[in-house]
Amino acid sequence: EGSAERILVPHFVEQADVFEYLRTRYITWLEVGGSHAHRFKGLVDTLGLTTLIITDLDAKDPASNEARTPALGKGLEARNETLRSWAPKETDVDVLMKLEEEEKAIVHPNGYAVRSAYQTGEKLKLGGVDVEIHANTFEDALLYRNFDFFKTRKATGLAGKFRAIADAAQDGNQLTADVAKAINEGDKAEFALELLFSDDIEQLHVPTYIEHGLLWLAEQLKR
What we know:
The protein has 223 residues and is an alpha+beta fold. Helix content is 42%, strand content 13%. A 3-stranded mixed beta sheet has the order 1-5-4, with helices on one face. A two-stranded antiparallel ribbon has the order 2-3. The chain has a two-stranded antiparallel sheet with strand order 6-7. Strand 6 and strand 7 form a beta hairpin. Helix 1 packs parallel to helix 9 and helix 7 (157-168) runs antiparallel to helix 8 (172-185). The longest helix is centred in the last third of the chain and has 15 residues, at 208-222.
């Protein structure tokens, strides 16, 4: 899901030693707009294709049906139909965010498996206090995983906004609100391309939820 993921995730696989095995496999990268991966369920099931779905949690308030930033203990649900109806077949955001990695996959009797990778918490130190931040998109998950990188890096566009926000951040709630506003107003594809062709991209780490998903995929292909 998303142009930024389609641009940057294959690069992370190419550059990181931990994904060396994946570089020797035949993998199709397919970008699906929005959270519509579930529309491919029939094809994947028929062909028996081991599949990793990289998607967004897409939390909502079930009472108003309005989008919300993922948070624990708020009674939120996932709007994402892939998570709700395919893998791991769960709607409660609290449950989704607490699932063990192996619980996010469905392994079929004939051997192939399907797993969803979506945003989870990331620990940051703000104002001298350790806080857990919950990402809502690939872009803010990338920021939180590489907070010091963006905080000290000169840039324009969305990456430049990330630097200003990270440098001023003292409170988790304000940080997530400011980041969400910047992402909504920014150009995600431009952000990804600027990073891809930068001189310091080798310092970036893939968001944690995607790293876990890719390592799962490698283990499935080895099996």
